[in-house]
Amino acid sequence: DRIGAGRSSFTRQQAPLGLGHAVACARDIVGNEPFAVILPDMIMKANPGCLKQMIDVYNSHGGNVIASEAAHEDELHRYGVLDLHGHENNVARVAMMVEKPAKGLAPSNQIISGRYILQPEIFEALDVAKPGTGGEIQLTDAMISLLRNQAFHAVEYKGKTFDCGDKV
Ligand code: G1P
User: What is the DSSP letter of 55?
Assistant: First the structure.
């Protein structure tokens, strides 16, 4: 829009069928363009902001970009966990990801931090995604199927995360 106030559109997920299903609900609003997913239960204190750091990586690498951060071994089972290679500073290529790995089975200590820049082909992957961890349609599973054809980079963003999915 021409004016800074911009424009908002809303959709509602009518049943709690998982994050992947929630993202798919926005398909008609997003259309055929790359877009950002911001999970509001992860609050990031960062300067520049986490998404700005990701957009900078997107502008140089293209493809799909995921925010990541190191987590303690005891917490890895609560998150999507990344298997990374080819590190350049705080950016690495995603080789694989695992949604909520069982204890001892996480491929690294780098978790998916609730910010994504995704290509619209993710919607086709979500269309055919089967229920995964927790019986939910997982965004992580759709990203894994896109990994065959598209690059994913993780940005270990500089800042601090407050995860409101935890009571403390
Ligand atoms: C979701 C994602 C997970 C990610 C997490 C970040 O899980 O499925 O990969 O690490 O958000 O908050 P949820 O918190 O919805 O269980």
Answer: H
